[in-house]
Amino acid sequence: MICLKNLDLLKRTKKRKKDIARQLVKKVLLQFNFEWDSFRKSGKKGNWRLTADSMLEQYADLFIDVAVEVNEAVAEEDINDLRNLATELRKIANTLDIAGIGEQYRSNGDECAKKALELYKKF
After folding, report:
1. CA distance 52 to 56
2. Better-predicted residue by pLDDT, 40 or 64
3. Residue with more model confidence, 98 or 36
4. Mean pLDDT over residues 112-116, rounded?
5. First and final CA of the chain: distance in angstroms?
6. What is the pTM of this model?
7. CB neighbours of 35 closer than 8 A, spacing ≥ 6?
8. Contact residues for 22 (Cβ-Cβ < 8 A; gap 6+)
9. Distance from chain centroid for Cα 61
10. Does domain 2-122 fall into CATH 1.10.760?
11. Structural domain boundaries of the chain?
């Protein structure tokens, strides 16, 4: 009888960990989407390239950190999607540093924000 209770508690604990992990992933994805949308709507004020670059690098780091934290509680495919999104953010930031392009950069950022929202809905 004691073993069954412990097993039930273990199952609930694993489910709770999985729920918390999913909530964490959803939060950072939605946060990025919201912040990118706000950035876009603000227009090219000040040093917008530096602001955008900093934001993309920050979220790339955050997505990797979250992927590491939830690795055991979330499906490998979902972790890979989050890592791929982080890689895309870094690539966009690096492209901006090299090319100094504007509209293409925004378009790529918009695409990443869209992917973040799609991944959010998947969770």
Report:
1. 6
2. 64
3. 36
4. 87
5. 35
6. 0.77
7. 55, 59
8. 70, 73, 74, 123
9. 9
10. no
11. 2-122
